[in-house]
Amino acid sequence: MGEYIRTMIPAEDIDRRIRELAALISRDYAGRTLHMICVLKGGAYFMMMLSRYLDESLAVTMDFMSVSSYGDGTESSGIVRILKDLDQNIQGKDVLMVDDITDSGRTLYHLLGMLWQRKPNSLRVCTLLDKPDRRGWDVRIDYAGFEIEDVFVVGCGLDYKQKYRNLPYIGELVLE
Ligand code: IMP
Ligand code: MG
Predict the structure, then answer these.
(1) Ligand 2 ion: Cβ-proximal residues, 5 Å cutoff
(2) Proximal ligand: closest to the CA of 154
(3) What pTM was estimated for this model as a whole?
């Protein structure tokens, strides 16, 4: 079976939108220290893109974590397993979670619950893509790059069997 990628959001549009988000975030966090948390591996590309467009006067710190959404394999179990925890304490910090896409919202929902227990001063969410049609878990996305319909996409950090994360555009995966 062959596969190819059909461009859905071109690189220029992604770049422009990420600059807009960076401007919004720079304005909202002005005067504070922004603690960005990347959800590996999908969020890495977006977090680096976003961070380079933040206002240079903004104080920014970063940390990384990795989770597995399928603790015991059942969709509804609500188990999110931490594969790599944060290195730094987030108590009292203004935390921004950065991820590639919010689909069902399941991963983020449980991650946010876990992180709130560590008492950050604030905890917001920024995702490059949002698939609202698929949302089964009540998560609030504070900053979203693009809303997309329910198709499987790759690029800008998103993968299919670990491939295509490097593509500078978002494309629909077509299997034939
Ligand atoms: P959720 O817990 O259902 O919101 O799942 C979110 C995770 O599933 C994302 O962080 C992605 O890693 C993955 N995912 C969801 N939709 C896609 C897609 O269209 N392409 C690639 N990965 C996806
Ligand atoms: Mg992910």
Answers:
(1) 42
(2) 1
(3) 0.94
